Amino acid sequence: MMAMEGVATAVAVKLPSFKIIRRTTTLNWRSSRSFRSFSASASTLREGVPSASVSVSLGDFDPTRFLNPQSRMFFCIYVCSQKPMVVLKALQNYYEGYNSNVHRGIHFLSAKATEEYELARKKIASFINASDSREIVFTRNATEAINLVAYTRGLQNLKPEDEIILTVSEHHSAIVPWQFVAQKTVPDINMFKEMLSTKTKLVVVHHISNVLASVLPIEDIVLQSHNVEAKVLVDACQSVPHMVVDVQNLDADFLVASSHKMCGPTGIGFLYGKSHLLSTMPPFLGKFEARTPATGEAIWLGAAIDYLSGIGMQKIHDYKVELSRYLYESLCIVPGVRIYGPAPSENVYRAALCSFNVENIHPMDIAALINRLAIRSGHHCAQPLHSDLGINASAQASLHFYNTKEDVDYFIHALNDTINFFNSF
C-alpha cells in the first residue's frame, strides 16, 4: 500500500481496479468524404444509411418541447433523462392546486402537500423494495446523499488505520467525500477480494459504470464485505432508472440515486439506508431533511416512478438489453473506433451506453460536429478511470427506453460522416 507523507495514521482509501476489456475495430468502412450537417429526424434517415427494421420505443418523447423540434434524438441519457408530459403535469398540478409547505400546518393545503410528499417517499421505497419508507431520506441529489453518509456515519465511526475501499471507476461524487474524511488516497490495483480485511469499514461501489457500461456483482461484493463486517454504499444512479433494483436482495447498507436520471426533476435525489444504521447517525445540516423540503420535486419524482412502473422496469431492462447490443455492434464497425468496457454477451449485460474514441480525432471535436444528437464528451466525472485507461477524454452515446434502433442508425451515419470530414484534410 502506498502511504502519503505526514498522514500515516489517517484512514486509508483504497482504489481497486476491475478488469477492463478494450476493443479496437478494424478499418473496413468506406463512404463519401463530404461532410453533411445533421438536421433530419431519425424517421427520415438519409439515403444510404443502414437501417434496422422500424421499431417502436417504450416511452413517449415529444420533440416539439425543444428549441429545435427536429432534434428528437438525445444520446446523453446517463447524464440526464428527458421528461414525459404526464410527469411534467404532476409538478404543475402541485403548484396550481395545493402549493404549501409540508409538515407545517393542519389546513387542507398543507395536509394535501404532506400527503403527496410522503406518498412519493413510499413510492421510492416500493420501487427499490425497501422494507420501510422511513429508510428513504430525500436529498438534493445523489452527491449530497453520499456526503450525508460520509459526514455522519463516516466521521462518527472511522478511526485511524481503518480503510475505505472504492473502485477506480467511481464517479467523482463517490470519491471526493471520502478523500475529505480519510485525508488521503491510496491507489491499489489488487483485486477487490484481496483488499478486504478486518480494517475495512466501508466499501463504496457503483452498480453500473457511467463510463464502461459494466455492471458490478453487488450481491457478491456485499456478501464479501459483510464477512469482514464492512458496510457497503452503492451508487445506483445508473441502475435504478434502467433495471429492477431490490435493496433487500442486494442487502446493501446504503444506496443512493438521483431523480433527474429517472425522468424526474433536477435538484432532488434520495438516500436509502437500513433503519438500524440511520437511527445511529447524527443529524446532518440540522437533521436529515432540514427545514422546507423540495416538495414539488418530490411529488414530481413520485410521478416519474409511477410512469416507469407503469411501463415496467423488467420490460425497460429487456428492451435496453437489445438496444445496448445493437448500439455496441453498430459502433464496432465504424473505422478507427475503440470502445471502453466489456462486450455484451449472453452472460454479460452491458448498459445502453458506449464510451469511445476515434483514432486521431478528439472526442470534443466529434461531439461538436454532431451536437444535435447531444452526445457527451469529456471525462464524464471519472478522471481517475480515464487516467487508468491512458486517455484524457472520451465521447459517449447513451440510450433510454424512448430511443429506437433507427436513432442508433442515424447516430452511426452522423459519426461516419464526421470521421470522413476530419480524414479529408
Number of helices: 13
SSE succession: EEHHEHEHEHEHEHEEHHHEEHEHEH
Structural class: alpha/beta
Mean pLDDT, all residues: 76
Radius of gyration: 22 Å
Strand order of the largest sheet: 3-9-8-7-6-4-1-5
Poorly predicted segments:
1-53, 64-72, 183-190
Helix content: 25-40%
Q: In total, how many beta strands?
A: 13
Global geometry? globular
Distance, first to last CA:
48 Å
List the helices and strands and how they pair.
Elements: E1 12-15, E2 22-24, H1 85-97, H2 108-127, E3 136-139, H3 142-157, E4 163-166, H4 172-182, E5 186-187, H5 192-195, E6 200-206, H6 218-227, E7 231-235, H7 247-250, E8 254-258, E9 269-273, H8 275-278, H9 295-311, H10 313-332, E10 337-340, E11 353-358, H11 363-369, E12 376-378, H12 383-389, E13 394-398, H13 405-423
Parallel strand pairs: 1-4, 1-5, 4-6, 6-7, 7-8
Antiparallel strand pairs: 2-10, 3-9, 8-9, 10-11, 11-13, 12-13
Helix pairs in contact: 1-9, 2-9, 3-4, 10-13
Explain this structure:
This protein is an alpha/beta fold and 425 residues long. Helix content is 36%, strand content 13%. It contains 13 helices and 13 strands. Helix 1 (85-97) packs antiparallel against helix 9 and helix 3 runs parallel beside helix 4 (172-182).
Write a brief caption for the model.
This protein has 425 residues and is an alpha/beta fold. 36% of the residues lie in helices and 13% in strands. The protein contains 13 helices and 13 strands.
